[in-house]
Design brief:
Chain B: This is NADPH--hemoprotein reductase. The complex is a heterodimer. Chain A is mainly beta. In chain A, 9% of the residues lie in helices and 39% in strands. Chain A is built from two helices and nine strands; from the N terminus they run H-E-E-E-H-E-E-E-E-E-E. In chain A, the strands form two sheets. A five-stranded mixed beta sheet of chain A has the order 4-3-2-6-7. Classes of the chains: A mainly beta, B alpha/beta.
């Protein structure tokens, strides 16, 4: 996976000071067998005040469905430019999505939260399916999802 | 060009279209089934009431959705497990499973993407595009065949496969075109090729910060009837900054969870609105009856594929190949053919070969391909035109007179027209004559004056080719003996004799039909299928020229029946009238679609005299649906040549024949059939006003008399036989 810090930095206030201090992080999302079509997943970060900080990844290529990732859509006002260059295919039921990206050290143990919104055609929307604080201790600890995501792990 | 544009996408796409149309037709049933299985809300019920009821049943409800069918689904979380159910809006209780149908999901994935994601979506879009081209080029072909767009809805004639194809296509074309256009729009929308202007209101900067108000007490929700609801998303439990998100038919907005007030509202733009209508029109979701109609008409696509392929194969077979043919824009000689039965093609091919042997390059095509703008260096254009029936154009060349009149002459190539016909018909070579006049008026220079070939005479054709050779400076002398159908041996089964007493020996001859197995059909053995009104060609001993008799039966009757009157000195009629049961003749069938009754239930007026009753009797015998049929029949004497007298009585008793009016010219008040038509003028006008069709069969003088009588009778209705003929309501078969 290409380093994604640049994209994150461009779209957020997380700029230069942390740039030198970045490390590769692996995000693993395992989907459950929910019995439907491929899931759209929006992975994004909020800052300590709960405001949108930036997007990390968008799984699913057709922007007309992004409104069903409703928290992400509300935070970004559906702005497709937020995921420009960090968009991939939707993820099938029972499949897993593994991403490796350089994330700034400043994101960790500083009150930032990683969120995943999920949606599947003809099935319920599942915003904020995952909401996990980014901490050094939390790395490697699987977090359970609610509807489509069996578990999610970030690891250094 | 138009024909090629219709043919190739059709053949290439046939399999794809079969898959898409069958899956589409199957999918069309789901919205109707869902609609039938859905409990509709009371018209006055508000979203506030619904939300309160659902909250009572499922306190952790997160989202309520209403499908276009009216089905309401609620989604909630109990602890960590997600739940969903279809809801009865009146009670808020669960009313069924919310799991999507696996079959429907599979069908819709197949229908829109052939189960292949984006590559499949592009493929199906190409399929829709191909169908669009087919629908439009097909409509243009029908318009051309009918003689203009304004006659698109006029009754159709022609062989069964062509007629089925065209009638079905005409019925379905508008709906199908809509279906393909909407499919293309939806594909464009999926791939973000269209502007998006969905309602996406900005999240409110300030909320009340209060929680705990029951949805029942929220004014913003109370103002919206359930029938307008699309989606209601609840705030996160315990998050006082969150809001209700409400989406209705008219827009999207946010509702404060503490006060129930509307905080923001936005309406979607025109692209989204149009997109919603297009989705509805394509899927029938929200318009179940329309969906069923669309599905039903979509089933015409497989039938059209099969009949279209049959037509193409038949036309291929009927057109003799000319080896060494060159493209129209490179040929010296453009050879165009208008032919109903196909014999004129044989002459054209012989001429083409002779021109090729003399070193020329030839393009051979049906006259309907006429397009002088595309004939680059052509030196001459030759048209061989058969006349069909009573001076009509062959079905494949309908509207050509108007087209030639409207085209600019080729800059270098002059035109020569050769007519093929039968001198015994009053309108001998009339179609070729009309072509010639139209060409002259359009300013074409003529290479040769119009010439006429009587009954496929090889001598006359050779003479014309010599004249052509003189005109173009290439010696030509083309002899072509048209291959006659070998014919099938038919055995006379029975005969009924009339008319000896009035010096007009007439016989109803019934020939046995052999059962044809599949092998016989494939090998072309035995008589092909035929209907009353088709022609039986008979090859008399001692002559190579066939004589044609109207068939008084269809192959479904199990026999071939004709009515023959002995003409003094007539070779064929003499042999036939002397035929004894058990003896045989050689015969073949020639279709005569211009003289078949239409398939409607409108009254049918049959007018005939003498042996002309043959095909009319066949129509009555075949009238199993008991359509009202009225017969006017003229003969010489009630006791001498009242053909089919007992049959007519039986058919009347069975309801196949409604009334019979007879005129006898040698007895009583000595009437002809046109006289009793005039006496029945009021009744005939009433029947014609009901949409009646008229079919006339008999000798040429009788047909002319009937035509005049009907012209007088119909004049008060401001109608004429010619006008009815243009509408396909008047057909004549005279001899």
């Amino acid at each position: 996976m290409k380093p994604l810090f640049a994209a994150l930095a461009l779209t957020t206030a997380l700029i230069a000071p942390g740039l030198a201090l970045a490390r590769p992080v692996t995000l693993t999302t395992n989907l459950s067998d929910y019995g439907g079509r491929g899931a759209y997943l929006a992975i994004y970060v909020t800052d300590p005040s709960g405001a949108y900080a930036g997007s990390l990844w968008m799984a699913g290529g057709k922007s007309k469905y992004y409104k069903h990732l409703s928290d992400w859509a509300r935070f970004t006002a559906g702005d497709v430019a937020q995921v420009d260059g960090i968009t991939g295919a939707s993820v099938g039921a029972g499949q897993s999505l593994e991403l490796t990206m350089d994330l700034a050290d400043a994101l960790f143990d500083a009150g930032y939260t990683l969120h995943i919104d999920a949606a599947v055609e003809d099935m319920r929307d599942s915003p904020n399916e995952i909401a996990v604080p980014l901490t050094g201790n939390g790395a490697g600890q699987p977090v359970q999802g609610r509807r489509y995501i069996a578990d999610f792990t970030y690891a250094f | 060009m138009l024909r090629a544009l219709h043919r190739w996408p059709g053949l290439l796409a046939a399999v794809l279209l079969l898959a898409l149309s069958l899956s589409g037709a199957a999918l069309s049933v789901f919205p109707a089934v869902e609609r039938l299985g859905t409990i509709q809300p009371a018209p006055e019920q508000s979203v506030a009431d619904l939300a309160a009821r659902v909250t009572a049943t499922h306190p952790a409800v997160e989202q309520i959705r209403r499908a276009p069918s009216g089905r309401i689904t609620a989604y909630w979380f109990d602890g960590d497990s997600a739940g969903a159910a279809v809801i009865d809006p009146a009670t808020g209780q669960d009313a069924g499973s919310a799991d999507p149908s696996a079959l429907q999901a599979w069908l819709s994935d197949f229908h829109r993407a052939l189960l292949m994601e984006d590559a499949g979506r592009w493929t199906t879009a190409l399929g829709a595009l191909a169908m669009l081209v087919l629908a439009l080029s097909g409509a243009a072909l029908i318009a051309r065949r009918q003689g203009g767009w304004h006659r698109l809805l006029a009754p159709m004639r022609g062989p069964a496969a062509n007629r089925w194809h065209a009638e079905l296509a005409r019925a379905a074309v508008l709906t199908l075109t809509l279906s393909y256009l909407t499919a293309l729009w939806m594909t464009a929308s999926t791939f973000d090729l269209l502007p998006t202007d969905e309602a996406n209101p900005a999240f409110p900067a300030e909320v009340s910060g209060l929680t705990g108000l029951s949805p029942a007490d929220m004014p913003a929700l109370a103002a919206v009837p359930v029938t307008d609801l699309r989606d209601l998303t609840f705030p996160y439990p315990g998050d006082a900054t969150d809001v209700f998100t409400l989406t209705t038919a008219s827009g999207t907005g946010y509702v404060d969870q503490g006060t129930g007030a509307l905080l923001a509202w936005e309406t979607p733009g025109p692209w989204t609105r149009v997109g919603e209508w297009i989705y509805l029109l394509h899927t029938g979701e929200g318009a179940a009856l329309w969906g069923l109609l669309l599905g039903l008409l979509t089933l015409s696509v497989p039938v059209l594929s099969v009949t279209g392929t049959l037509i193409w194969l038949r036309a291929r077979k009927a057109r003799p190949a000319l080896p060494g043919i060159v493209r129209a824009d490179r040929a010296e000689t453009i050879l165009l053919v208008a032919s109903e039965g196909g014999t004129t093609w044989g002459f054209a091919r012989a001429l083409g070969q002779a021109l090729q042997q003399a070193g020329g390059s030839v393009h051979l095509a049906p006259l309907s391909d006429f397009a002088p703008a595309g004939y680059g260096p052509a030196k001459r254009i030759l048209i061989l035109a058969a006349t069909w029936g009573d001076g009509d154009a062959p079905a494949s060349a309908k509207g050509m007179v108007e087209r030639i009149a409207a085209t600019r002459p080729h800059p270098t190539a002059p035109l020569a027209i050769l007519g093929f016909g039968d001198r015994s018909f009053p309108a001998y070579c009339a179609f070729a004559e009309r072509l010639e006049i139209a060409a002259q008026q359009a300013g074409w220079s003529m290479l040769l004056p119009l010439d006429r070939i009587d009954r496929q005479s090889p001598q006359a054709f050779a003479r014309w080719t010599r004249a052509l050779g003189d005109a173009i400076g290439t010696p030509l002398d083309v002899t072509h003996q048209p291959a006659l159908p070998l014919g099938t041996v038919l055995t006379l089964a029975s005969r009924r004799d009339h008319g000896e007493a009035v010096q007009a020996p007439t016989a109803i001859l019934r020939f046995a039909l052999q059962r044809r197995g599949l092998l016989d059909r494939l090998a072309g053995r035995g008589l092909p299928r035929f209907q009353p009104g088709d022609l039986l060609g008979i090859l008399p001993e001692g002559s190579t020229v066939p004589r044609y008799y109207s068939l008084a039966s269809g192959s479904a009757d199990g026999f071939a029946e004709i009515v023959v009157r002995k003409h003094p000195g007539g070779l064929c009629s003499g042999q036939l009238v002397n035929l004894a049961p058990g003896q045989t003749i050689r015969a073949f069938v020639r279709p005569n679609p211009a003289f078949h009754p239409d398939r409607s239930n409108a009254p049918l007026l049959l007018i005939g005299a003498g042996t002309g009753i043959g095909p009319l009797a066949g129509f009555i015998r075949a009238n199993r649906i008991k359509r009202p049929v009225h017969l006017w029949f003229g003969a010489r004497h009630r006791f001498a040549d009242f053909l089919y007298e007992t049959d007519l009585a039986d058919w009347t008793a069975e309801g196949r024949l409604t009334t019979t009016t007879t005129a006898f010219s040698r007895t009583g008040n000595r009437q002809h059939v046109q006289d009793c038509l005039r006496a029945d003028a009021d009744r005939i006008r009433a029947l014609v006003a009901q949409g009646a069709r008229i079919m006339v069969c008999g000798g040429r003088d009788m047909a002319r008399g009937v035509h005049e009588a009907l012209a007088d009778i119909l004049a008060p209705l401001h109608l004429s036989p010619e006008g009815l003929k243009r509408e396909g309501r008047y057909a004549e078969d005279s001899y």
